[in-house]
Each structure stands twice: as C-alpha cells, then as structure tokens.
What we know:
The protein is an all-alpha fold. It has one domain. The protein has ten helices and no strands. Helix 1 (3-31) runs antiparallel to helix 6 and helix 8 runs antiparallel to helix 9 (198-218). The mean pLDDT is 90.
Amino acid sequence: MxxxxxxxxxxxxxxxxxxxxxxxxxxxxxxxxxxxxxxxKQLISSGxxxxxxxxxxxxxNEAERVVxxxxxxxxxxxxxxxxLTCMAVGAFGIAVNNFIAMTPLVHVSAGFxxxxxxxFGGDVLLQILASCVVxxxxxxxxxxxxxxxxxxxxxxxGMGIFCSAVLFxxxxxxxxxxxxxxxxxxxxxxxxxxTRRVSLAVLGHATANLIAILRASSGILxxxxxxxxxxxxxxxxxxVLGVGAMMxxxxxxxxxxxx
Length: 259
C-alpha cells in the first residue's frame, strides 16, 4: 500500500483528535477540570467533530455506491438487524467485561482506574447522553464509517476490520480498555462489513455503553465479575449468546442481500 493510501486511512483520526483536543482544552480553561463535568466536556468535544466526520463519511459513501450500488432499504429488515445487533454486542460486551474484571489487569492499570472514574463521574443522565448518543455517533463514524471502509477499499476487508479494531483500542490509552475496545471494535466492524450499515455500529456501541452505565450505577450483575462458578458460568452464557446472535445476524443479512 502506498504511503498516500496509508495516510488516507489515518488522517481522519488526526483531524478528529485535533478538533476534540482543542475543544476539550478550551473547555478546561473556561469551565475547569472537575471530575463531575468531565463527561460534559467529552460530550461537547466529541460533538464538535461530528460535522467534519460526516463530510468524510459522505465522500466515502459515494465511492462505495460505485462499487456496491445503492443499498436496499426495508424498515422490517433493519429492525431485525438492529435487534440482533443489540443482542450480539450487548451480550458480548458483558462477557468480555466480566472476563477482564476477573484478571489482575483492572487493579494494576492506573490509566484504567482514572478513565473509569471519569467515565462514571457526574450525573447519570449526562453519562447516558454523552456515552450512549454523542460519543458512539462520533467514534463509529470515524472507526467503522471511515477507517474500516478505507482500509477495506485500499487493502482488504480483513485489513479494514483489523485496523479499525486495533486503532479503536489504542485511542483508549490503557491496556484494559484496549483489550475491551479492540474486541468490541472487531465485532462492530464485522457487523458493518456484513450489513453495510454504520448506524448498526452506533446502536451496538450505545447498547454496550448503556449496559456499562446501568451496571455501575445499580450494581446489577456484580456477581458476574467474580471468578466463581456463577460468575464464570454467566459470562460464558453471555459469550455464547453474543456469538450466536452475531451468527444469526450475518446469515440473515446475507439472505436479505440476495433477495
């Protein structure tokens, strides 16, 4: 792959972080650095990147239409895909989260502890608005709407999935979230590759984040973080459910595309 092609995959990430970092830094000066308003600043800085990301995404969509043609639209088919996506990503996210929590990584990663405190700091409604609406839209436009598709068009689908997943993990900047985000990112990338719908990745991402917020705020399913028979059994069950729903989604989407 030529250097210019590699740059085409990476430079939207630099643009995204340049905009978000500048806005976040400005907000630090204007409203301070209190943990309680971290998610407010995250919401605003992520939201500021969306117009630029939409411009990149629309440009790439035109090129995709030339290759694949116009996609069929059916509300019934989309609702089925959406339900399977929520089930697959939600269950898979729970399982991966649980298995990571059973390891020593969560206790030795200072970066994860800080990120966790910021993520779950402040008002729950603000957490939901930022983490389940604005951030999923921005990050999925970037990683599954742009990086994935550019990697696939310039190299292969496998390379696109790999790049979008690994880069999505790296930007979280700690080992625990790298593992979780990379695995979840790979699943989301496969969903977009098989369905050609970035909106499903947004929905899946939002579902995983919503479940994390509800678990943290309510304490529900805390038993499943423990390496006990109940915890491991539940986590394995969630993994099987997630993979099973994903397989059904892929098969369903393939049959729909052939109609």
